[in-house]
Amino acid sequence: MKQIIAFFLVLSLLSSCIKKKDDCDITSQPITDNSIVTNSANFTYCEYAVFRQKKDLELYYTIGDCNNASINTEWTYTGQNNRVGQSNSSSSFIDYEFMTSGTICAQLMTESQSSEKACREIIVLRNNVWGETTNDFSGNATVQSITLTINGDVYSGFGNFNEWYKFDTTSWTWIEKSAIPNLVDFGAFGGFVINDFAYIIGNNSSVYKYTVSTDAWENIGTFPENVSTMLDLQDPSEYPNPVVGESVNGKGYFGVGRNGRFYEYDPGANTWTQKATYPETTVINKHIFPYQNRIYVGRYYYDVATDSWVTFNIDFSRDNFAPGFVQFGNLMYSSQNGETVTFDGSIVTVYDPNGPNKCSEVVSPIKVMAQGAVTGNFAIFPKLAIPSQGNTSAHIASNIVSYYVLQ
Hints:
Elements: E1 3-12, E2 36-38, E3 44-46, E4 55-62, E5 72-77, E6 81-83, E7 93-98, E8 102-109, E9 118-125, E10 129-132, E11 146-150, E12 153-157, E13 164-168, E14 173-177, E15 188-194, E16 197-202, E17 206-211, E18 216-222, H1 227-231, E19 243-248, E20 251-256, E21 261-266, E22 271-274, E23 288-291, E24 294-303, E25 308-316, E26 326-328, E27 331-336, E28 339-343, E29 348-350, E30 373-375, E31 378-381, E32 385-388, E33 391-397, E34 402-405
Parallel strand pairs: 1-4, 3-9
Antiparallel strand pairs: 1-7, 2-4, 5-8, 6-7, 8-9, 10-34, 11-12, 12-13, 13-14, 15-16, 16-17, 17-18, 19-20, 20-21, 21-22, 23-24, 24-25, 26-27, 27-28, 28-29, 30-31, 31-34, 32-33
């Protein structure tokens, strides 16, 4: 999530150095703020727009007659940053990781003299930014997985593996949490959160409850059907069918897969009730998300109040939107055709919070992700799935983590 800008020292020798007893002027003309220049149109940067060792800012100056050719340049920055490199005989760049806006200053120095500082303001925009974290997901790669927000934190794992991780927004790394004990050949593809407890349903048809305070899983019963049969998990490694794991109004919902079977969970009674079957049996690569008492799956939504599936005028497929939908405030957010979009229950609209200065570094459209979760003003999408070459229905699992910054 860090802005990285590399600074290069450019030296133009307009006159030769002549040895004298007295130290000379550092420059034939004083450096000014305009001596710091950029290759871009201005000094405004998107969070994910500039990378380490990429030439972007330069200091231009000229040397007068002098007896000391050893001139150093000292760079400073007033905003929050990390200095990760420096000029030396083999490298002419200085790296900074800019995390906030601030002022960059450069000063020329010899053994006995220093110039005035030249300074320019750097604006780091962090609105409407998509990117990929430098730290991949720590678990195993799997196309289908479970990602949930529990008590304000993002957790992810399972899929084809018995593993569970929490995302640390301070270090931007994944912290391993407790897996379910004593399991072999386990997979779980759907889960939901009710009252800060996580519930998942495994392919062994057991239902497990996760408590954050104790970091422990508890087997609380058995699902009414054989989950592997209900979802038709013939090849879980590249399973393309949607698996619903969502909660609405204090109830959990699980199902669909290839056979469209669908159930509601009541945590108070710890019981399951079969609901209306999903109307399409060939559905693949569809996004799933709950919104306004509905659960959207591809081009249908489930109406909780009427226990019915309704055809919708938008197909929320991975071909149309990537990486997935998450909720900030009263709107759902995703991206389409390289633009951030919002969904208000009726239409999809291009989101433009910053006018002409907006940032819109969008994840490559060849990468898709069915599920993300929100922590603060960040949406985290662990384990992007990449379509297999020549096969649009199959995807290759990866541990690439995508994120979106709302503000």
